[in-house]
Specification:
Layout lengths: L1 H12 L11 H10 L21 H12 L20 H8 L3 E11 L2 E9 L8 E10 L2 E9 L2 E2 H19 L4 H10 L14 H14 L7 H12 L14 H4 L1
Antiparallel strand pairs: 1-2, 2-3, 3-4, 4-5
Helix pairs in contact: 1-3, 3-5, 7-8
Keywords: Signal
InterPro entries: DUF3828
Pfam families: DUF3828
Length: 252
């Protein structure tokens, strides 16, 4: 586990600063919040690639969290940290535009800045939300490196959950296979570890591929949903059918 965490830390520390950002920090922050409207599409916090609004290290933490989450389950990112709200798309479609009241920038160095924002989720909302966007310059753009609010730090929260899950998985390992199996059944009802991380890579990859091609279509008939439950939701170590592992090839 330590090797994994050190590797991720090394990746996160590698930041490309090929050119200065074309927009200022304030312009970037205002542009992000400008998309929280009834007629616009709010950016996805976990987005990667050219449309990403977050830094490399947040993306790596969220990707790891997604990999540590069972297919079909919701990982740590079950809300939008930028607006501190659920289902941003539906909220702004029905209630109107987010109202950004203020943006205050504190530049800590050439590549880092804090953006203290205050906003209301919609025009008639009496409640105001204040939080700080930790901004970093990467690849010629300002992106969000963390969000700190009264809930705490987004990055610390997702890293903490990842480390807890990795520690639990590591604690299950034993020198002898029979001791390992006994340990799995000892903690079978904990729901603190994803069973996809105690099976072979080929089995895990097959389950993930099956989920992406079948479950995410969102138009599955009842019989397909039953198959999904068999392969994804039910832990095969204690609930799977006798022939479950022999049928992995059929999922590929």
């Amino acid at each position: 586990m330590k090797i994994i965490l050190l590797f991720l830390a090394a990746l996160a520390s590698f930041t490309v600063h090929a050119q200065p950002p074309s927009q200022t920090v304030e312009q970037t922050v205002r542009h992000i919040y400008q998309n929280y409207k009834s007629d616009a599409t709010a950016p996805y916090f976990g987005e990667t690639g050219e449309r990403a609004i977050t830094s490399a290290r947040i993306q790596q933490a969220l990707i790891l969290n997604d990999n540590l989450t069972l297919p079909g389950n919701i990982g740590w990112l079950d809300y939008d940290p930028v607006c501190d709200c659920q289902s941003a798309k539906n909220i702004f479609r029905h209630f109107g535009n987010l109202v950004l009241e203020s943006v205050a920038i504190t530049q800590t160095d050439a590549d880092h800045a804090d953006a203290a924002v205050r906003f209301r989720i919609f025009q008639d909302d009496k409640e105001k939300t204040s939080q700080t966007l930790k901004m970093v310059a990467e690849n010629g753009r300002w992106v969000i490196d963390d969000i700190v609010s009264n809930h705490g730090s987004v990055l610390q929260a997702v890293n903490s959950e990842n480390e807890k899950t990795l520690a639990t998985i590591a604690s299950l390992q034993k020198e002898q296979p029979e001791a390992f199996v006994a340990e799995l059944f000892e903690h079978i009802a904990d729901y603190s570890w994803p069973w996809t991380w105690v099976v072979s890579d080929s089995y895990r990859q097959a389950v993930n591929a099956f989920y992406k091609t079948t479950f995410k279509t969102a138009n599955n008939p009842d019989e397909d949903m039953q198959i999904e439950r068999q392969f994804i939701y039910d832990n095969p170590i204690c609930f799977g059918e006798e022939s479950l592992f022999s049928r992995v090839d059929a999922m590929k």
